[in-house]
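Weekend entry, working from home. Most of the wet-lab plans are on hold until the incubator is repaired, so I used the time to fold the two sequences that have been sitting in the queue since the last round of cloning. Logging both here for the record. First:
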Amino acid sequence: MLLHDFLRAAARQWPQKTSIVFAKRAYCFREIDQQSDRLACELQRLGVRRGDRIAALLDNSLDLVVTLWGTLKAGAVLVPVSPGTKADGLGFLLSDSGAACLVAHGHLRRTVNEAVAKSAFAGPLIWAGGKGERSLDDILAEPHRVPDDSGLIDQDLCLIIYTSGSTGRPKGVMMTHRTMCNNVMVISDYLRNTPDDVVLCVLPLSYSYGLSQVLTGAQIGFAVVVERSFAFPYDVLKRIGEYKVTGMPSVPTVFAAMLQCAPFEGLDLSSLRYFTNAAAALPTAHILEVRRLFPKVEFFSMYGLTECTRVCYLDPARLDNKPGSVGRAMPNCEVHIVDDEGRCCAPREVGELVVRGSNLMRGYWRRPEETALALRDGDIPGEKVLYTGDLFWMDEEGDLFFVGRKDDMFKCRGEKVSPREVEACLYELPAVAEAAVVGVPHPTDGFAVKAFVVPRAGQEVTEDLLRKHCRQHLDALLVPRFFEICDSLPKTDSGKITRAALRKSAVT
């Protein structure tokens, strides 16, 4: 099974069924299949061969969906790049991946030209969203042809997804067809997806969480309504009623914006069956508010990372009993928690999460040393397991609780501080929309706790209010020494709050 076999099969079984909705235009599976065939043929004509990397600098759009499938059909490997990437970053990705071709939106021409001039990239450019030169629109208007069989097997790479690079230069996470097919099928199984589902995707398709919605739609046969972003929450939420959306994958920043639209006057949200949350932990206070506002909608708290897409989920039936948990390992996956010496932790003991299964990356592209740190020998000779770098604890029933990234932990007065514990307390205040906690250098504490807080629209938040609340609910060590009330928090293109940027701003 190859990843693009999902689309081929859907086009045969449901040729006229809607696959993608973008800008209020619906495209059926046959259209997507045939358009991606045309692009695959053009890539092969340009000399693209099995295993070559195709970089895609594209907004959430039909162009990106077609480029995904066309790249895979040509036997190549898609390297999705966030359209917000600057020229220096794009130049690095082109050189590091050894991209054979770049597909980019025309409005990003200046960034592309500057990046190409600074990189080793020498391949052809395909421009989307315009005429002239080598135009994607012209390619997709050509007569339909089927690309040559590239001879792929399921161990070949299909994706290289670069991490956000919060701790240095981005690393390219290598995913095989076999791994991605496994992940898509397992996730759709526990979400109980059917061809009748309609999924609203406001997540960037340049990251695995958003891209998975398109892949799963093809595997199951459901429609995906693609939005450029969640910048205008109320307008996007209208799509739920317009298209009878049943599923909405989100991240904490999306939920925070959505909750500010409550009580959702004038919106028809009755078709919703489920929410999912991944990419970053959703504060328990927000989970409880979502449950209150949507009592009939199933909520899947999930955990995953780029290096293995998804690891675990909490059955919605148990959410009310354990709202702070991300559940247990998904099917065909095993997890355990180890201490610094590699010993398995006892229940409720904090340690690093280790993952075993078919969901793991092949490694980091051209990064053997960093690959060796993440993928280490397992108990079975020759097998590798993933050391996630994330701290968890497990209760007596086997449910997992996220503590934080090892890199985010810091010591205050000699004691370890988990930023998430402080953030969870701040989120209990109804007036707090977003919160992030970091450690900042301090002459006596080593690191002092500093909290950045964004108030909800129309709400007033003061330092006295925040400090009083924290003193009532936290140990003295965890009460922030410093507070900063701000209009927004820095985020990656995938919606994660970037603590590295906050740490930097706190000391400059």
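Second, folded right after the first finished:
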Amino acid sequence: MSTREARPGPIRILLVAPAAPLIGGQAVQAQRLLENLRREPHLHVELQSIAPRFFPRLQRIRFVRTALTTAKYVFDLLRNTPRADIVHVFSASYFAFVLSAVPAILIGKLCGKKVILNYRSGEAEYFFGGWGRHWLGIVRLADEVVSPSGYLVDVFERFGIRARSISNVIDTGTFRFRDREALRPVFLSNRILEPLYNIDCILRAYRILLDKFPDARLIVCNDGPERQRLERAARTLQLTNVEFVGLVPHEKIGELYDVVDVYLNSPNFDCMPGSLIECFAAGVPVVSTRAGGIPYIVTDGVTGLLVDTDDHEALAARAIYLLENPSAARAIIEKARQECARYAWAVIRPQWLDLYERLAAGRRRADHAAEGGRT
């Protein structure tokens, strides 16, 4: 009898992750994974937000917000974890790891559950190589460590931790591919406005691009703590035709891809930005720094163009190369489009199902053995 036939009921998964109204790639991926997994009849999946919303007036107060949110988050874990077979924890680095991942892993193990640590931060090497090394023992408590990028698999291997890569899911069918016979100097940045993503580098690159193409246009999408400072920086650089459009709902982002011709990406650290694959699907060529896991997604000169981190001159030069070499740009766009198939749910689905089923079978064997020992 197969594992699925022998199973007495659905596999119960508690997905612990960022959720709306939080912004960012993790929240998008968590929602996408939730929607796809809920279509599986032998799975029962619940989402627990790492930042539960309640008492909104009190949560506007900085330190009170942290204390209340953490207390409510832990309370929800204690309530929800006993009902699960598997606790699937999304995680970033630094205090996000300590405040979100650590409680979920510890409570999951204390409740006798199988735990998946789905680590998604490009800062892993710097975090665990610094003060985060004290938390590596918590990582080792997880039954499985999963990352969306082979880059983080390699990072964890250097710390003596076995990890596996399961890529992000990109619904490429939601993005209209537009043929671009000749690229226009219309650029897009779509990362959270925080220091990690170094939007300053894009602004400095755009200053060079604007000098060469006076009709150039830059759309800065998304929001974050750096927005006001970046708007001031754009004025200091005397940049024209720059639009800070704020946060765009993910279901609307395809409309932005449709009006731009080059995507600029300049993080100092990164893991697997889904926006790059979305650009592949929309026919928008990518010029990016080669931070973290980006070279695991973009092959330089084949599916995009890569430069060193914080090198605005190289970023501008590679964008100019695309604009001035339409045949090379078209070849990159077509190769990138072909890459999209790797990130379809049909490809990713069996990897998650196999992992869940194996962990659930192991837990139930342990439960049966424990019950046998009590009889």
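Plan for Monday: verify the second prediction. The chain has 14 helices and twelve strands.
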